[in-house]
TrEMBL record:
InterPro entries: 3-OHacyl-CoA_DH_NAD-bd, 3HC_DH_C, 6-PGluconate_DH-like_C_sf, ClpP/crotonase-like_dom_sf, Enoyl-CoA_hydra/iso, NAD(P)-bd_dom_sf. Residues 300-476 form the 3-hydroxyacyl-CoA dehydrogenase NAD binding domain. It comes from the Bacteria. Pathway: Lipid metabolism; fatty acid beta-oxidation. Residues 481-574, 610-699 form the 3-hydroxyacyl-CoA dehydrogenase C-terminal domain. It is found in: Peroxisome. The lineage of its organism: Bacteria, Pseudomonadati, Pseudomonadota, Gammaproteobacteria, Pseudomonadales. It catalyses: a (3S)-3-hydroxyacyl-CoA + NAD(+) = a 3-oxoacyl-CoA + NADH + H(+). This is Enoyl-CoA hydratase/isomerase family protein. Its main location: other. Signal peptide: none annotated.
Length: 704
């Protein structure tokens, strides 16, 4: 038999072991081998029951995602048909689930008459995260097994459930104590089934999956969730498929699922989300650094600064079970910081996301100190003090004195020169930037800033620890603002400028949120602080001394003390949580525009707003790639999706540029360069790499 399957017969039992590392993705070759093995077992008169399992333990992570969008995804034998065939088995089929059964993997298990899982197994239908829906019977068979409501929950959340919950729901029939005993337990289960003359497939437990649910269940589910879904297609398709499972007989329901799946697979949203899936895995690969490079061990972490940022950073490590020493200058600040952390955890307890015991365990991992001497045994120190070069350098001089040799010294600066910070130490090879995003315990992005002297093992170790604390680490080179904030600059600049020229903040933000961004950039400025924005800009004035209108509106709001949400006024007016338009902002814009001789127009269209803001964002990203600050275009997408609320189903700004067409982006930039007078001439210069890509007829963004 094919090496993708380990097939063996033990007495009256056939064992089909899926053997396609690393995750038994059900690509065409494995599908063919699986069907072959099944037919063989089926035809063998000695075999009375069949166990399907993962040969190395792990069951399967589902369909092969790399096949989607090509003919391979449904190349014969296709998964839905194989699974229909399995449900027709005259012999009991048992899925023995080790580690994970996800997506098509769980659907394979659903096609078996019986399921046993090891205690640590996780089962889920995460297709929605890829802009898909379960397409191999999951939307029809799961509701019939556990009822429509929990089935819908699993598909809409995309989150796997653990084995004990699966047992409770009836998704698993049995639990095996451990991964090691799984196969033996499956053998014993098979023997019991045969001894009791159990049917090959038990009757559906929920022949009417929606029984007991209110008549308007689906309508009200849709109504309450649609605002959150924005323009996402997949949740709507999932809902339609589950609804079909309650209305249609199985065969018709399966056909309906197939149609909906094809629609999802063909969508630009799914292509974008699949791009993001592979981008996340790719981001960990660093050219020139082997995967087997020995890493430094990180057992103890220290964080300097117990403010919002430092506290949030510390929580990440405590959450991952890593002890953290939190250093502050004054006892009151330290107490306040620790109290805030406790408060944050208490909120999680209230929401049922954490138990009291877990809260206490995490707090125990957090030790406060006022003295640098307590940092002597830390393996990784992260500085999160005030964003000023002299202060940061002073901290690093001290760290150089007190930290043990080999300790990694990281700065959480959001814009300062990591090399200049490293230069004050005698160990610049151990210094790196770890740029967390606020709130640091929530936001998934971690920009890992590689200084010119940073040692490869320091970079690789911090990437690994970033993953361990649940972040998406992305490597950036050193430049003002790194990847994210440097791209924010021209994007936000255009937003400011458009208001100066006659748009309203709400119009600008509305165009961006219509693209499903979490927030418009002007609302984001109000949230982050007009003052914070001003101070960062103020540290870099020389770079735009030639443009008197550069962020002039931001400067003006700053002078008026309109710092954004925290002062109740910025680009908008805030009353509690409500955001309102403020005519005063229009007046300020009119006044400043008149002073600078900037013409105001009433004809700024949404298209112009879209193109000017987004093309500038894209252009800067392409420039960063050309400069080698970003390793690859997909890294830039991850930064914007995980740090700046860019929608995953749009794929990040680089992927979005590819869907718009690189030639369209270039033509737009040239057009505004010509149409916007001195502003256009100054800022709308296409990135040379963009010009080269278009000239070479490329449709993907890559360094050439
Ligand atoms: C589906 O099933 C549709 C059906 O309903 C209908 C069909 C008709 N395919 O994440 P890792 C690769 S949709 C291809 O680094 P971890 C991954 O790229 C599918 N490749 O490890 C990586 O490769 P590389 C529904 C896959 O331990 C390597 O495996 N299923 C797939 O952190 C290791 O992955 C999902 O959405 C795949 N399905 O996490 C599950 N899965 O080393 C998606 C993984 O070259 N997968 N790879 O970079 C996951 O959630 C995680 O990968 C998993 C492992 C939890 C499995």
């Amino acid at each position: 038999m094919n090496s993708l399957i380990n097939y063996r017969v033990e007495g009256n039992l056939a064992l089909i072991g899926l053997a396609r590392p690393p995750v038994n993705a059900l690509g065409q070759p494995l599908r063919a081998a699986l069907l072959d093995a099944y037919e063989r077992a089926s035809a063998n008169a000695d075999v009375q029951a069949i166990v399907i399992h993962g040969d190395s333990g792990l069951f399967t992570a589902g369909a092969d995602i790399s096949e989607f969008g090509s003919e391979a995804s449904f190349a014969a034998p296709d998964l839905p048909s194989i699974l229909v065939r399995l449900t027709q088995s005259s012999k009991p089929l048992i899925a023995a689930i080790g580690s994970i059964a996800l997506g098509g993997g769980l659907e394979l298990a659903l096609a078996c008459g019986y399921r046993i899982g090891e205690a640590k197994a996780r089962l889920g239908l995460p297709e929605i995260n890829l802009g898909l829906l379960p397409g191999a019977g999951g939307t029809q068979r799961l509701p019939r097994l556990i009822g429509a409501e929990p089935a819908l929950d699993m598909m809409i959340s995309g989150q796997p459930i653990n084995a004990s919950r699966a047992l409770q729901l009836g998704l698993l029939d049995r639990l095996a104590d451990s991964a090691e005993t799984l196969l033996d337990s499956a053998r014993a289960f098979a023997a019991e089934l045969l001894a009791s003359n159990a049917p090959a497939r038990p009757a559906e437990r929920f022949a009417q999956p929606a029984a007991g649910l209110p008549a308007d269940f689906f309508a009200s589910f849709r109504a309450s969730n649609e605002p959150r879904w924005k323009s996402r297609l997949a949740p709507r398709l999932v809902l339609a498929a589950v609804e079909a499972s309650c209305r249609l007989p199985l065969e018709q329901g399966l056909a309906r699922e197939g149609e909906l799946f094809r629609q999802a697979e063909d969508s630009a949203q799914s292509a974008a989300l699949r791009h993001v899936f592979f981008a996340e895995r790719e981001a960990g690969r660093i050219p020139g650094i082997d995967a087997d490079l020995p890493l430094r061990s990180i057992e103890k972490v220290a964080v300097i600064g117990a403010g919002t940022m430092g506290g949030g950073i510390a929580m990440n490590f405590a959450n991952a079970g890593i002890p953290v020493t939190l250093l502050e200058q004054k006892a009151e600040a330290l107490d306040r910081g620790l109290a805030q952390i406790r408060k944050n955890y208490e909120i999680s307890v209230k929401r049922g996301k954490l138990t009291e015991a877990q809260l206490e365990q995490r707090m125990e991992l957090l030790q406060g100190t006022l003295g640098y001497a307590d940092l002597a045994d830390a393996d990784l120190v992260i500085e999160a003090v005030f964003e000023k070069m002299e202060i940061k350098q002073q901290v690093f001089r001290t760290l150089d004195e007190v930290c043990k040799p080999g300790a990694i010294l990281a700065t959480n600066t959001s814009s300062l020169d990591v090399d200049a910070i490293a230069a004050v130490t005698r160990r610049p090879q151990d210094v790196i930037g770890l740029h967390f995003f606020s709130p640091a315990n929530v936001m998934r992005l971690l920009e890992v800033v590689r200084g010119k002297a940073t040692a490869p093992d320091v970079l690789a170790t911090t990437m690994k620890i970033g993953k361990r604390i649940g972040k998406i680490p992305v490597v950036s080179g050193v430049c003002f603002g790194f990847i994210g904030n440097r791209m924010l600059e021209p994007y936000n600049r255009e937003a400011h400028r458009l208001v100066l020229e006659g748009s309203t903040p709400a119009q600008v933000d509305g165009v961006l949120t219509a693209l499903d961004l979490n927030m418009g950039v002007l609302s984001m400025t109000d949230l982050a602080g007009v003052d914070v924005n001003f101070l960062v800009r103020d540290g870099n004035r020389a770079a735009f001394a030639n443009d008197p209108s550069y962020y002039i509106l931001g400067d003006e709001l700053y002078k008026l003390g309109r710092y954004g949400q925290k002062t109740g006024r910025g680009f908008y007016l805030y009353e509690g949580r409500d955001r309102k338009d403020d005519p005063e902002v229009v007046e300020i814009a009119e006044r400043v525009a008149a002073e600078l001789g900037v013409a105001r127009r009433a004809d700024i269209t949404n298209q112009e707003i879209h193109d000017r803001c987004l093309f500038m964002l894209i252009n800067e990203g392409i420039q960063l790639l050309d400069e080698g600050i970003a390793l690859r275009a997909s890294d830039i997408d991850l930064v914007w999706i995980n740090g700046y609320g860019f929608p995953g189903h749009v794929g990040g700004p680089m992927h979005y540029a590819e869907t718009l067409g690189l030639d369209t982006v270039l033509a737009g930039i040239r057009r505004y360069r010509d149409e916007l007078g001195s502003h256009g001439e100054m800022w709308f210069q296409p990135a040379p790499l963009l010009e080269r890509l278009v000239a070479a007829g490329k449709t993907r963004i890559e360094k050439i």
